[in-house]
Design goal:
The protein is α/β, with parallel strands linked by helices and 125 residues long. The chain has a single domain (12-124), classed as Sandwich (Hypothetical Protein Aq_1857, Chain: A), CATH 2.60.300. The chain is 23% helix and 34% strand. A four-stranded mixed β-sheet has the order 3-2-5-4. It has a three-stranded mixed β-sheet with strand order 1-6-7. The mean pLDDT is 90. It comes from Methylobacterium indicum. This is Acetaldehyde dehydrogenase. Pfam families: DUF779.
């Protein structure tokens, strides 16, 4: 059982550039959410949707929120990435076909880092 005094490391964080783009998209589209499904092409990038345009289900894992936007990942992807902290960043380019940042000249990009032993123990212990 995890000690309640231990602060759990966030499973997902965002860079300042990503937070800026999230805020821009929230002003334009209202509440938004992210989904990371895995796969190839657009499926390998974090996708951003207006709330209500993408429905999450029992096979999705809620990782937390970035910039006020809830972040979900498919269960199979979570099983693969559970030992890492996901870092959402922004780079120049075109977003996924259905992702809200498409057309802004920027796209969300997933980076990651391995949790250290203490973080892993806190999250999974």
């Amino acid at each position: 059982m995890t000690d309640p005094a231990i602060t759990l490391p966030p499973r997902v964080v965002a860079t300042p550039a990503a937070l800026d783009l999230i805020e821009t998209l929230r002003r334009e589209h209202g509440p938004i959410l992210f989904h990371q499904s895995g796969g190839c092409c657009d499926g390998s990038a974090p996708m951003c949707y207006a709330v209500g345009d993408f429905l999450t289900g029992d096979s999705d894992v809620h990782l937390g929120a970035i910039g006020g936007a809830e972040f979900f990942i498919s269960a199979p992807q979570f099983a693969y990435w559970k030992h890492t902290q996901l870092i959402i960043d922004v780079v120049p380019g075109r977003g996924g076909m259905f992702s809200l940042e498409n057309g802004t000249g920027q796209r969300f990009l997933l980076r990651s880092r391995l949790f250290d032993d203490a973080e892993s123990e806190a999250l999974n212990g």
